[in-house]
Design a protein that fits this description.
The protein is an alpha/beta fold. It has four helices and seven strands, in the order H-E-H-E-H-E-H-E-E-E-E. The chain has helices at 8-22, 35-46, 65-68, 99-109, and strands at residues 27-32, 54-56, 87-95, 116-124, 136-140, 148-153, 159-164. Strand 6 (148-153) and strand 7 (159-164) form a beta hairpin. The protein is globular, with a radius of gyration of 15 Å.
Length: 166
């Protein structure tokens, strides 16, 4: 079996370029907790965008909430801007089934009706269960359904990937 090696920093540089193309006037970055939130924070700084980025959690709208319950360590949604009528650029680290994205969109609409919602991801690993596709992905990879791909951030703010499972 081959080992997957992804250079998260190189992929991040690609994400910066992709996000620049997706930005439009009155656009707000919203990172999906937790890896997407790290990416949105760094993108906000690196792209020198006005205002603050938002962070959104899928915890309250997950379709497996009944079986898994609330994650005690889950961060709460923080949207330091008006959502109503705003162009929202959702940022996530890894897109897989689409269920987290669906839950996040439901959460977002609890705060108002945005003008548009666009999704940009660092890695698209396929395996969709819902009709959700990113407008931009820095990479597309194929890994076994039993594997989990997670973004990590060190103390200096540099990104790397961790692959767990068989």
């Amino acid at each position: 079996m081959s080992t997957l090696h992804l250079d998260a920093e190189a992929l991040y540089a690609g994400l910066v370029r992709g996000v620049q193309r997706l930005l439009q006037p009155d656009c707000a970055l919203v990172g999906i907790w937790s890896g997407g939130a790290w990416l949105a924070e760094r993108l906000q700084q690196d792209l020198k965008l006005d205002g603050q980025h938002g962070v959104i959690s899928s915890a309250l709208h997950r379709d497996d909430f009944g079986s898994k319950g609330m994650n005690a360590s889950a961060d709460h949604t923080k949207l330091p801007f008006e959502v109503e009528g705003r162009h929202i650029l959702l940022i996530d680290d890894v897109l897989y089934t689409g269920r987290t994205t669906r839950a996040v969109i439901n959460e977002l609409f609890d705060f108002g009706r945005p003008a548009s919602v666009t999704l940009a991801v660092l890695v698209d690993r396929g395996g969709r269960e819902l009709p959700i596709e990113p407008a931009f992905s820095a990479a597309r990879v194929a890994i076994a359904p039993s594997q989990r791909l997670s973004l990590a951030k060190d103390a200096a703010g540099r990104f790397s990937f961790d692959v767990k499972g068989e």
